[in-house]
Design brief:
308 residues; alpha+beta; 5-stranded mixed barrel; two-stranded antiparallel sheet; 8 helices; 11 strands; Surf1/Surf4; SURF1-like protein
């Protein structure tokens, strides 16, 4: 029994009924620059000869479960590649949004939390006084150099020296509660406020800053320890509860620095965007495993004759 592979793949009975019409169409001559050419050319003949293979009548019909299971590998790799394409578009949109917003002119700090929650990375200006008696320490972490904010770049870690961001309650003049201000980074040996007394600002001050929303704890990241005043990530609600402030967090701008004090401008804008590497990896895996599946179950005799 001889059965063409094309017949097996695309519904044998239907093509057998149409075989005479297909053969007539393939051998129909066409005129091209005065010369007759036939659709039934050598390439088509070779293709049909390749597709026609003897079939063992006793062979089981359908795709074996093993072949179906192995097909899930390229399918899953393709799905992950598509997901990374979407993630890449989302990350690029987020970065563009951050840089577009951070370049706005500073605005007065809004009065309602509903407005503030919509203004992450938005520059603000405010006037008030610090309460240095309730400092919080966010770290350890390295200093961020943000000199390229104006050029649209992100924060760059300028050294490997360890230190802490100093979070200080701040009482704005236009409201009756305190908020949290990240004054900036200090090396570990200046974490103790007794080692930077000259920088503990007293009296009224006007400063520029950037609104920051709560930060999610990354997998495997250490937990905050409020009892020991050790903060690894920006848990605004818990920080505000411990310091007795409203849950509003502002990163002081780089121009807030005074000699001996925390270095402002510690807003990190360098969000990792490695999705293109993941896209290449997953689609490459999809292509390789698809070829392997084809070679194993289609090009070889393993599956030939099962598909009818």
């Amino acid at each position: 029994m001889i059965r063409s592979r094309s017949t097996s793949l695309f519904g044998g009975p239907l093509l057998r009924l149409c075989s005479s019409e297909l053969n007539s169409f393939a051998q129909k001559p066409i005129n091209h620059n005065g010369c007759k050419k036939y659709l039934w050319n050598a390439y088509f003949q070779r293709t049909m000869a390749t597709l026609q293979r003897p079939v063992n009548p006793g062979q089981a019909k359908g795709i074996p479960p093993r072949a179906l299971f192995m097909l899930t590998i390229p399918a899953a790799a393709f799905a992950l590649g598509v997901w990374q394409v979407k993630r890449k578009a989302w990350k690029e949109e987020l970065l563009e949004h951050m840089h577009r917003r951070i370049h706005r002119n500073p605005i007065p700090l809004p009065l309602t939390m509903e407005e503030i929650d919509k203004l992450d990375y938005c520059p603000v200006t405010l006037t008030g006084t610090f309460d240095h008696s309730k400092e919080l320490y966010l770290g350890p972490r390295t200093q961020i150099n943000v000199e390229n904010h104006q050029g649209g770049g992100g924060g760059i870690f300028s050294s490997t020296k360890s230190g802490y961001n100093i979070i200080t309650p701040f009482k704005p003049n236009d409201r009756d509660y305190y908020i949290l201000i990240n004054r900036g980074w200090v090396p570990s040996d200046r974490k103790n406020p007794a080692h930077r007394t000259e920088a503990q600002i007293t009296g009224e001050i006007t400063l520029n800053g950037i609104i920051r929303l709560p930060e999610k704890r990354e997998p495997f990241m250490l937990k905050n320890n409020p009892e020991r005043n050790q903060w690894v990530y920006r848990d605004v609600d818990k920080m505000a509860e411990v310091a007795g402030t409203a849950p509003i967090f502002i990163d002081a701008a780089e121009d807030s620095w005074i000699p001996g004090g925390p270095i402002g401008g510690q807003t990190n804008l360098s969000i990792r965007n490695e999705h293109m590497q993941y896209i290449i990896t997953w689609f490459s895996l999809c292509a390789v495993t698809s070829y392997m599946w084809y070679h194993q179950y289609v090009a070889s005799t393993t599956l030939r004759g099962r598909l009818r």
